């Protein structure tokens, strides 16, 4: 009996798969930005579990109770060995959220638009946790007021 097992190393069309992931991440980024230009972030609900995500995020990352800390994300800290482990523990609770570990784009600075220098690749639950907190603190409201 043979098993079909996907092997990323031997996949012939990895470039096409990576392009599909990139397209989906950019579409999600554009959709979110368009929402923020139309609705103040403080009035926006990203998931049906926003409150649960926020409470768990604050439990796992109490330093982000400080709006200044969540306003500017330190990519090196987030992606360090310790940071990855903390995020892994946090995300374990949300495996039921659609695409919870799918790649997406995250602004490192809530006071800036998406830019090449100010945008990092993150997983969806990191995006949700950070942006839900930013929205609760009103850090994204400037985007809607800008138009």
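Q: What amino acid sequence fits the structure above?
A:
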């Amino acid at each position: 009996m043979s098993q079909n097992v996907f092997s990323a190393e031997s996949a012939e069309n990895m470039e096409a798969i990576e392009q599909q992931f990139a397209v989906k991440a950019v579409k999600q980024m554009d959709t979110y930005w368009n929402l923020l230009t139309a609705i103040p972030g403080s009035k926006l609900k990203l998931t049906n579990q926003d409150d649960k995500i926020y409470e768990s995020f604050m439990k796992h990352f109490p330093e982000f109770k400080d709006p200044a800390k969540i306003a500017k994300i330190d990519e090196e800290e987030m992606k360090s060995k310790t940071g990855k482990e903390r995020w892994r523990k946090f995300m374990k609770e949300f495996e039921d959220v659609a695409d919870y570990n799918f790649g997406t784009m995250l602004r490192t600075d809530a006071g800036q638009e998406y830019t090449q220098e100010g945008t990092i690749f993150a997983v969806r639950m990191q995006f949700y946790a950070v942006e839900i907190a930013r929205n609760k603190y009103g850090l994204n409201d400037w985007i809607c007021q800008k138009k």
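Q: And what stands out in the fold?
A: The mean pLDDT is 89.
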